[in-house]
Amino acid sequence: xxxxxxxxxxxxxxxxxxxxxxxxxxxxxxxxxxxxxxxxxxxxxxxxxxxxxxxxxxxxxxxxxxxxxxxxxxxxxxxxxxxxxxxxxxxxxxxxxxxxxxxxxxxxxxxxxxxxxxxxxxxxxxxxxxxxxxxxxxxxxxxxxxxxxxxxxxxxxxxxxxxxxxxxxxxxxxxxxxxxxxxxxxxxxxxxxxxxxxxxxxxxxxxxxxxxxxxxxxxxxxxxxxxxxxxxxxxxxxxxxxxxxxxxxxxxxxxxxxxxxxxxxxxxxxxxxxxxxxxxxxxxxxxxxxxxxxxxxxxxxxxxxxxxxxxxxxxxxxxxxxxxxxxxxxxxxxxxxxxxxxxxxxxxxxxxxxxxxxxxxxxxxxxxxxxxxxxxxxxxxxxxxxxxxxxxxx
Length: 394
Ligand code: GLA
Hints:
Blueprint: H1 3-14, E1 22-31, E2 43-44, E3 46-59, E4 64-69, E5 74-79, H2 93-104, E6 112-118, H3 128-144, H4 150-165, H5 172-179, E7 184-189, E8 195-199, E9 205-211, H6 219-237, H7 251-257, H8 264-288, H9 292-308, H10 315-326, E10 330-336, E11 343-349, H11 353-368, E12 373-376, E13 384-386
Helix pairs in contact: 2-3, 2-4, 3-4, 3-5, 4-5, 6-8, 8-9, 10-11
Bound molecules: alpha-D-galactopyranose.
């Protein structure tokens, strides 16, 4: 949506066209490899996308927060008195959770009007939630002139999701949305937050995101279940090693003692996390050495482990990946994000792109009855302010 139309919608909701709101943008993200490692203190390799969330925001002299979205027909008004109340299963929990974090830091929130407008496919595992959180956090920091660094905004947004929304997510999504850089993937150590931008030079190869369009019911509770399983696996391994997170041991160390985890399911969960962590390190070397074929093989291995060890894929994701991997010209394919539906990411040679979309789309539909959507990803920058247009005519 262009800026003029966004302003029009803002004034349709909130009136007073003589006061222009500021505009901010935060992208969504796609993770290349390193899935379900972040909350285990491991490595990830995400990048920011061209799709994201715009936020138009303006302060008002009344004790209310007015929130609206162009994506759903919904507008609400929250009184500014005391703490915010969570709404069951609602997107407003993301901005309200961020405001709650500001209040917990004794940064007082004044009255304001916010209009969100996003083009990230909803509920597709491309971090539309982290995008809403980060755009809110960044805009509030600017508007309130709060003394918070970008890393603090990232941590605060993750806390909003953990404490207000109730999903025990790691830090990958907020970090990618906040720190993304055009044409680079972020190699992030989620324990220390040390990070390095790795150029994604995919000469003649496109990064294709495919949405299964499967409804992700109960995904949040299954996600929290995996987080808890990993913590339980640590309690067994910490009898043998001085560790507090699964990422702290190597695959060789784990391999020798894995039988000490009596529960077979927990053992597989740990096997995924620890092997995936090593795959990220190998994948980063591949990117530096421009060894895209080996990178693709690691993507395929990652999917296999997420399917068999971590069990977060399901029929639709497995079908979309299996059909992609059959196409000549596909370097690698895997699910991306939390799983349980959502998207896959594939590296496809440019010559094979049309055939890929057509064949994979057709076979996926035949097998699942669902229609997949395909997007060619452009690796983009993180959260930012959008300069106001020179002219606006209401
Ligand atoms: C979701 C979470 C992230 C991460 C991924 C899985 O996107 O928000 O923190 O755990 O799942 O890698």
